[in-house]
Amino acid sequence: MDRLHPSSRRRWMAKIRRAPDRRGPWWAEILAGIAQSYPACCYVEIGVEHGTSVSVVAPCCGEVHGCDVADRAEAMPRGSRFWHMASDDFFARYDGSPPDLVFIDGGHSYAQARRDYENALRIIAPGGTLALHDTWPESEDATAADLCGEVWRLRKEIAAHKVTFETFPGLTLVRPDE
Ligand SMILES: C[S@@+](CC[C@H](N)C(=O)[O-])C[C@H]1O[C@@H](n2cnc3c(N)ncnc32)[C@H](O)[C@@H]1O
To answer: How confident is the model at residue 4 (pLDDT cuts 50, 70, 90)?
Structure first.
């Protein structure tokens, strides 16, 4: 801890001191910890919705981008950039820093998740981490389009170094460089 830059240390301490009822969902806390491990992490989230995850991760980042087909600008934390468009367009137009961490949680069809994954591979920084949400549906019912959808199929195909948290709704972390 003493080797951390003072501003990183303050942010870290603020995070771990948060009361349990102010913590985010488990996957967002994992993402926040990963973001903290990169100096001034550049974070990209595909599918912002109510901003539940991005609001937990953003305090651990230096640059934050969120993309959603719906207008979720108001859900984005202060200082972040919102891209109101489909993820295919976002990846085609992206002009931010190469992201250290990309969280893919937009369209949950197999084809969309696959495209988001492949597009993220193109822009990710060397040594970056890709995170896929909803990769562990737990039961047939949970593969409904409004729950985990078909992202689990993509998880099975990824050959790169990966780890999956096998708890509903699932989170798969991929390190393309390893
Ligand atoms: C499950 S919610 C995201 C939840 C958010 N990541 C969180 O953890 O708090 C999925 C979001 O993806 C958006 N979405 C669906 N298809 C998309 C696409 N092709 N491009 C961008 N956003 C998309 C939806 O509008 C919705 O807000």
So the answer is: low
Q: Is 67 in the pocket of ligand 1 (CB under 6 A)?
A: yes
Residues in the chain: 178
Contacts with 102 (C-beta within 8 Å, 6 or more apart), sequence order = 43, 44, 45, 46, 120, 123, 124, 128, 129, 130, 131
Q: Which tens digits make up the pLDDT trace of 138-161?
A: 899 999 998 999 999 999 999 999
Which of 49, 57, 88 gets mutated to test ligand 1 (max ligand atoms within 8 A of its CB)? 49
Domains and CATH numbers, the chain: 24-175 (3.40.50.150)
Q: State in Å: Cα 6 to ligand 1 middle.
A: 34
- CA–CA separation, 168 vs 152, rounded Å? 11
Minimal-distance CA residue to ligand 1 atom 8? 53
